[in-house]
Amino acid sequence: MGKMTIEEFEDFGVLIDMVEGDLDAKAAAVENGIRRSLAEAITAALDGRKMDMYQFSRESGISSAQVRRLLHQEMGGRLTLCTVVKAASFLGLRLEITLRDRSR
After folding, report:
1. Rounded CA Rg of the chain
2. Cβ partners under 8 Å of residue 18, min gap 6
3. Where in the chain are the domains?
């Protein structure tokens, strides 16, 4: 749940390679991929609970604007790690972040 497929990672890798020289563009591309993956996981968890985004916002204490960002319905704006952790915890999800050496 919320993991990118191999094909998506390969497409994502091609995109990253295309913007290799532009650090801002690279960061934006990575952020977009992460947000898309988060949105898929959170949407699946909400669907499993038969909960809409408004109920999720009320019960979790996360603002509706932040929920729209979490669900990738609103581009831009800040999405803090704190908000992601709060959403994951509320939905009973475990958040894993892994950094790896790109040369491997």
Report:
1. 15
2. none
3. 6-91
Chain position carrying tokens 């319905």? 73
| Amino acid (one-letter) located at 94 | R
Residue-wise pLDDT tens for the chain (104 aa)? 455 444 454 455 555 555 566 777 777 777 888 888 888 999 999 999 999 999 999 999 999 999 998 888 766 677 888 999 999 999 999 988 887 777 76
Report residue 46 as tokens.
């909400």
Name the token pair of 10: 């390969």
